[in-house]
Design goal:
With 304 residues, this protein is of the alpha/beta class. The radius of gyration is 18 Å and the shape is globular. Helix 3 links the parallel strand 3 and strand 4. The longest helix is centred in the last third of the chain and has 16 residues. It has a single domain, classed as TIM Barrel (Alpha-Beta Barrel), CATH 3.20.20.
Length: 304
C-alpha cells in the first residue's frame, strides 16, 4: 500500500496481558478506534511500542497480524531501531516480508556514530529494501543529530522520503523546507510542538497521546489544514497538559495509563518498566482525569 507520509500517524503502544504476552485483541481494539477516528497510518515497534522489550519473532507476528486486521484501510509502518548495520538490514528485510508498507528508522542504537557512519548506516538499509523510509531525527533522546548536510547526502536514496522531526527546534521545519523544498515529507515527532510545526509547513504528525485521544489529535490536524486555526488552537490548549506526558522518561507508562482510563488499553508494561506508582502516579492521574472531565466538544472534523 502506498504511504502518503502526511496526516496523523499514531506510534502505537503494544498491549500486554498480565503474563506479559502480547494482547492482540486489546491491540486491535485500539487499532479499530484509531481507524474510526480518522488516522492516516499506524506505526509499530517504536519507543511507545516498547520495541526494546520485543523479540524479533514478536515484531514479525505483530506486523503480520496488524496488516491482516487493517485489510488495506491504511498503511502500516514498522520502526527500525538496531545496534548494527547488519541487524538493521535484517530487520528491514523482515518487515518487508511481513507486509510492512514503510519503515521508520532511527540512527544506530547505543553507539554514538559519526556523521559519516550515520549516513552510511541509513544508506545501507535504504539500498537493501524497496520500502520507503522515514528518518527519525531525535538528538535529544538518541544523541545523534541528523543535520541538513547529512540529509543532503541521504537525498541520493530515492526511497528515503520523509523525516520525523523531533529535534525540539521548531525552526528546523523551516530550514528543511528552505533547503529541500518538497524533497522530504516532514512529520512532527513532538506532541507539544504539533500545532507550531503544522503551521510552519509540516505535512503530518507522528503522535503519542493519539493512542488514547485519537479524535482530538485528528481534529487538530484537519482543522489546521482546512484553515480553521482558531478552532484547532482551542483544542490544542485543552490537550497540552496531556501532550506533556509524552515528553517524559516515563512516556510509555503515562500514555498506557491514559489508554486505560479511556478504555483503549491497559497500563501493563514489560519489565524493566513498571507501572507508575505513588505520588507520580497520582500526579499523572490528575492530569488525565481532569482533562477527560473537561474534554471539548469537537466539530465534524471527519468531513474536512
Amino acid at each position: 500500500m502506498k504511504v502518503l507520509w502526511k496526516g496523523i500517524y499514531p506510534a502505537l503502544t503494544t498491549k500486554f496481558k498480565k503474563d506479559f504476552t502480547i494482547d492482540y485483541e486489546a491491540f486491535m481494539t485500539n487499532v479499530d478506534f484509531q481507524i474510526k477516528s480518522g488516522v492516516d497510518g499506524i506505526i509499530l515497534g517504536g519507543t511507545l511500542g516498547e520495541a526494546s522489550a520485543l523479540i524479533d519473532d514478536e515484531k514479525s507476528l505483530l506486523t503480520r497480524a496488524t496488516k491482516e486486521h487493517v485489510d488495506g484501510k491504511l498503511p502500516v509502518i514498522v520502526n527500525i531501531a538496531e545496534q548494527t548495520t547488519m541487524g538493521a538490514i535484517a530487520a528491514a528485510k523482515s518487515a518487508e516480508q511481513d507486509g510492512a508498507d514503510g519503515l521508520m528508522m532511527l540512527p544506530p542504537m547505543r553507539y554514538k556514530a559519526t556523521d559519516d557512519e550515520t549516513i552510511a548506516y541509513f544508506k545501507a538499509v535504504a539500498n537493501s529494501t524497496q520500502l520507503e523510509i522515514m528518518i527519525y531525527n531525535n538528538p535529544i533522546d538518541y544523541k545523534i543529530n541528523v543535520t541538513l548536510d547529512m540529509f543532503d547526502s541521504l537525498a541520493a536514496c530515492q526511497n528515503i522520503v520523509a523525516v520525523k522531526e523531533s529535534s525540539r527546534d521548531i525552526s528546523n521545519i523551516t530550514r528543511m523546507i528552505t533547503r529541500f523544498g518538497d524533497r522530504f515529507q516532514l512529520m512532527c515527532g513532538v506532541d507539544t510542538l504539533a500545532v507550531e510545526s503544522l503551521l510552519m509547513g509540516a505535512d503530518g504528525w507522528v503522535a503519542g497521546l493519539v493512542c488514547a485521544f485519537p479524535r482530538e489529535t485528528v481534529a487538530i490536524y484537519r482543522l489546521i489544514k482546512a484553515g480553521r486555526v482558531t478552532e484547532a488552537i482551542a483544542i490544542y490548549r485543552w490537550f497540552l497538559p496531556l501532550l506533556e506526558l509524552d515528553i517524559n522518561p516515563q512516556l510509555v507508562q503515562n500514555i498506557k495509563l491514559a489508554e486505560e482510563k479511556v478504555n483503549l488499553g491497559s497500563e501493563i508494561v514489560r519489565p524493566p518498566r513498571l507501572p507508575l506508582s505513588g505520588d507520580l502516579r497520582l500526579k499523572v492521574l490528575h492530569v488525565i482525569e481532569s482533562s477527560i472531565a473537561s474534554r471539548p466538544t469537537l466539530p465534524d472534523y471527519l468531513s474536512l
